[in-house]
Amino acid sequence: MWHPAAFSRIPGGNRPQDRPRAARQQNEARVSGTTPAMTEAEKRALRDAFGAFATGVTIVTALEPGGAPRGFTANSFTSVSLDPPLVLICIANAAHSCATFRAASHFGVNILAEDQRDLSGLFASQEPDKFAQTSWRPGAEGVPLLPGSLCRMVCERHEEVEAGDHVVLIGRVVSFDVSEGPPLGYHRGNYFSIGLEDRLVNAIAGAGVIRIGAILEREGAILLREDADGRMTVPVAPGDAPTLPGLIAMLEEAGLSVTLDHLYSVYEDAGRNDHAIIYHGAASGEAPEGMRYVPLEEVPLPRVESMAERAMLERYRQEYRHGKFGIYQGDAERGVVHTIPKARRK
């Protein structure tokens, strides 16, 4: 099944006709030793390009010379070799704990589970004593390890490589243990949970007729489809067997650039006699014919025919005001909201 990095599996998504067309506009930038130094705008664009690669999330730990624990959240982690067993992590030269990690003989890597988002946020923050706010235990060589992580490993310093504004620390794994569970993911500045989205989407995909759509925001307004009678709805994928790639392709063919970041709502719509899977994202470009951008505070909810969709848009308007979003699972009258904290970059 088709499985985009930040989203759950959608039935039928692996068929060639469901995939977005390759002909799309992309930002292109040349980065080489012979080109001039990048502007700040180019650096931001390149950072966004790096963010297109979905990763897991780790917390890297070590001890200061005096024995105090230090740690930071990182997604720049990868395995390097099995023989010898090597991994690497990257740390910015400007990071407060850079000197500690460069001096440490050992460091720990804690690969986070989907329910450790708050822990990731803590270690990505500027809190002065992070370890006083969570439980931890000493591993080999006293390296701090975090309970609940999917994998905890202690590494002996193997090599250090200067790499631009970062340092690459290569470590030899000396001990590790592994737990079962879904991982915490990170993509384009947001956390995502493969486990949660899979469970919600797979449950609804087998329930009968489904509708796949998206709330697409641009500068405080959302894109809505409007029919000849003035009734409004969010854009939805075409056809009797809708797919997420089909939705993206439809919008791009209409001249929009679309970025989806997370699942937003999964609900039963009794009024339409179907089940809806709604994603959240951003759109740029002029509204296609039959659609228009409507400022959130001006969305004419009475003109949204579906009661369930009306309730979803009202919830979105409230969440947008507070900057905190969740995944809704339920129907027009009752349901559960699974909170999605906004990721904080380290």
UniProtKB/TrEMBL annotation:
GO terms for biological process: pyrimidine nucleobase catabolic process. Residues 28-37 have a biased composition (Polar residues). The keyword Thylakoid does not apply. SUPFAM superfamilies: FMN-binding split barrel. One of its GO terms (molecular function) is FMN binding. Coiled coil: none annotated. Keywords: Oxidoreductase. The keyword Ribosomal protein does not apply. InterPro entries: Flavin_Rdtase-like_dom (IPR002563), NADH-dep_flavin_reductase (IPR050268), Split_barrel_FMN-bd (IPR012349). SMART domains: Flavin_Reduct. Residues 1-38 are annotated as: Disordered. Residues 50-193 form the Flavin reductase like domain. This is Flavin reductase. It comes from Roseovarius spongiae.
